[in-house]
């Protein structure tokens, strides 16, 4: 808001004099803590991977803060964005899982968790959780969704096109479309994060992969660039 | 025949010739819904130290565009004269052009005086130019060299202020680097100790600041000799990918093909390899 008034200058001529009125300061309830998450599913497996760097601005808060959270023996969720909301959201999800277990006497299925998460997030439609979520898991029969993949978080725009090409066989002709195996998926996820760490400043330090098979959830940790 | 003088000294006062044009362009672009391109900042760690026989300058090699790495191995230590080098932080184009302009003017000046240029001269030229532009040239510099008066180190800020100091750091990683200097700096160090100190200061910036990364470049300037060590230390190697991502011929669909023959005689053939790291 500008208020202008006329003032007589030294040489007798009138000159315009402007000054701004009251200034509004804003408090932002959100912070961006970086991090990238990735989920891939095959015929009989699912994997959720994330880097372990927690940053803010140009600084690093922690080099060992993974963004995958194990919910049940068949489901893992990856959450990145504002770390405060990630922690609160996972706490709420875990509480809701317990409530479901106590009232229905069985564990929630992956699909049910996803549907529940949607309602939890929409409940805060007008003051959202600043979290990018990806749920990876197996269904009741121990099957994953064939050849599905999703990237979220700060480097998602770099990872998604490569996954579209390598897993979805998009933009390629005369290529044999082999179904995705667990070994190929793990190798691809590692390579893709190595590339993301090269160009995204928020991604790096280490990569944690949670591999979900009918045997349960297994973890693998791979070092990444630390700069 | 008129000779064109390249070394033009400004008449005095501020030069805001392009401000009106820039404001109009900005308004036009915003009306169309686009935003004007942001200047690429180097998000850097640069530092310098004076030791027994001269100065050691250090810099990282990452250039960022927002929070994406634009160049993984850019050179931030710029040549000013055979005995004076300058590290630059801030807007990449500004540091590059400013150091080149002053380097050119200094060479003409040195031919006119018949002497090796002095670090203080380069400092004076840089600060007067930056002040003239009132901070709009986003160049934060660490200027170091050895001349007839001895080894000298200056830090130059975008608004035109300078400090003559035994150790300086600039850029987004300057706090991390200064922490190392404040811990281990001593006057009159030996060359190896000074190089180790600068290397460790830049490494602190590389690992603790997101705007800095990749390798460490060093420049050791002594009386009569300059060691431009690029890279001095490859602190971060690219991770090794296990998969093979080469595409076979025919993977990209060809819609139409038209071949036009050029009947030419090959006179000379030369190969220049591209840096694909």
From TrEMBL, chain A:
Family, as annotated: Belongs to the peptidase T1B family.
Listed InterPro entries: Ntn_hydrolases_N (IPR029055), Proteasome_bsu_CS (IPR016050), Proteasome_sua/b (IPR001353), Proteasome_suB-type (IPR023333)
An annotated GO cellular component of this protein is: cytoplasm
The record's keywords, sorted A to Z, are: Cytoplasm, Nucleus, Proteasome
Q: Which PROSITE patterns match?
A: PROTEASOME_BETA_1, PROTEASOME_BETA_2
Q: Where in the cell is it found?
A: Cytoplasm; Nucleus
**Protein name as catalogued:** Proteasome subunit beta
Instruction: Give GO BP annotations, semicolon-separated.
Output: proteolysis involved in protein catabolic process
**Tell me, what does this protein do in biology?**
Component of the proteasome, a multicatalytic proteinase complex which is characterized by its ability to cleave peptides with Arg, Phe, Tyr, Leu, and Glu adjacent to the leaving group at neutral or slightly basic pH. The proteasome has an ATP-dependent proteolytic activity. Non-catalytic component of the proteasome, a multicatalytic proteinase complex which is characterized by its ability to cleave peptides with Arg, Phe, Tyr, Leu, and Glu adjacent to the leaving group at neutral or slightly basic pH. The proteasome has an ATP-dependent proteolytic activity.
Quaternary structure annotation from Swiss-Prot or TrEMBL? Component of the proteasome complex.
Automatic annotation (TrEMBL), chain B:
Q: What is its main location?
A: cytoplasm
- Kindly provide the name given to this protein in its UniProt entry: Proteasome subunit beta
The answer to keyword Hydrolase applying to this record is yes
Task: Supply the Pfam families for this chain.
Answer: Pr_beta_C, Proteasome
What is the organism lineage in this UniProt record? Eukaryota, Metazoa, Chordata, Craniata, Vertebrata
GO MF annotation, one: threonine-type endopeptidase activity
Keywords recorded for this protein, A-Z: Cytoplasm, Hydrolase, Nucleus, Protease, Proteasome, Threonine protease
Q: How does it assemble?
A: Component of the proteasome complex.
Query: What GO terms fall under cellular component here?
Result: cytoplasm; nucleus; proteasome core complex
UniProt function note: The proteasome is a multicatalytic proteinase complex which is characterized by its ability to cleave peptides with Arg, Phe, Tyr, Leu, and Glu adjacent to the leaving group at neutral or slightly basic pH. The proteasome has an ATP-dependent proteolytic activity. This subunit is involved in antigen processing to generate class I binding peptides.
Look up and give the organism this protein is from.
Sinocyclocheilus rhinocerous
According to its UniProt record, which protein family does this protein belong to?
Belongs to the peptidase T1B family.
Active site positions, chain numbering: 44
Chemical reaction(s) catalysed = Cleavage of peptide bonds with very broad specificity
The residues covered by the Proteasome beta subunit C-terminal domain are 235-271
């Amino acid at each position: 808001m500008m208020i202008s008034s006329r003032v007589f200058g030294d040489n007798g001529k009138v000159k315009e004099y402007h000054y701004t009125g009251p200034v509004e300061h804003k408090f932002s309830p959100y912070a961006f803590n970086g991090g990238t998450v990735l989920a891939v599913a095959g015929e009989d497996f699912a994997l959720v991977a994330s880097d372990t760097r927690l940053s803010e601005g140009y600084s690093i808060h922690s080099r060992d803060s993974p963004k995958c959270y194990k919910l049940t023996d068949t489901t893992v969720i990856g959450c990145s964005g504002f770390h405060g909301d990630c922690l609160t959201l996972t706490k709420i999800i875990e509480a809701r899982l317990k409530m479901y277990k106590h009232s229905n006497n069985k564990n929630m299925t992956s699909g049910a968790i996803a549907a529940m998460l949607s309602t939890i997030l929409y409940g805060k439609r007008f003051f959202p959780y600043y979290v990018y979520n990806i749920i990876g898991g197996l269904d009741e029969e121990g099957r994953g969704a064939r050849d599905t993949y999703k990237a979220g978080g700060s480097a998602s725009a770099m990872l998604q096109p490569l996954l579209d090409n390598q897993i979805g066989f998009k933009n390629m002709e005369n290529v044999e479309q082999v179904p995705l195996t667990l070994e190929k998926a793990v190798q691809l996820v590692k390579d893709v994060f190595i590339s993301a760490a090269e160009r995204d400043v928020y991604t790096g330090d280490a990569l944690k992969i949670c591999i979900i098979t009918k045997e349960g959830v297994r973890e693998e940790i791979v070092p990444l660039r630390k700069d | 025949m008129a000779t064109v003088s390249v070394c033009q000294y400004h008449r005095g006062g501020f030069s805001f010739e392009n401000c009106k044009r820039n404001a109009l362009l900005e308004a036009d672009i915003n009306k169309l819904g686009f935003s004007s391109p942001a200047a690429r900042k180097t998000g850097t760690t640069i530092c310098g130290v004076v030791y027994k026989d001269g100065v050691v300058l250090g810099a990282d090699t990452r250039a960022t565009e927002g929070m994406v790495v634009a160049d993984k191995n850019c050179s931030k230590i710029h040549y000013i004269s055979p005995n004076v080098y300058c590290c630059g932080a801030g807007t990449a184009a500004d540091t590059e052009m400013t150091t080149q302009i002053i380097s050119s003017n200094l060479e003409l000046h040195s031919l006119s005086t018949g002497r090796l240029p002095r670090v203080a001269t380069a400092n004076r030229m840089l600060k007067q130019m930056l002040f003239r532009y009132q901070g709009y040239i986003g160049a934060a510099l660490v200027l170091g060299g050895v001349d007839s008066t001895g080894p000298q180190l200056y830090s130059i800020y975008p608004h035109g202020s300078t400090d003559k100091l035994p150790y300086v750091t600039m850029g987004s990683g300057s706090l991390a680097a200064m922490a190392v200097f404040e811990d281990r700096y001593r006057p009159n160090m030996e060359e190896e100790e000074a190089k180790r100190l600068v290397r460790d200061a830049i490494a602190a910036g590389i690992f603790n600041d997101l705007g800095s990364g990749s390798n460490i470049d060093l420049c050791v300037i002594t009386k009569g000799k300059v060691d431009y060590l690029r890279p001095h230390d490859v602190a971060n190697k690219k991770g090794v990918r296990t998969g093979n991502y080469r595409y076979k011929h025919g993977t990209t669909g060809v819609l139409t093909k038209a071949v036009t023959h050029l009947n030419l005689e090959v006179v000379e053939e030369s190969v220049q390899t591209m840096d694909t790291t």
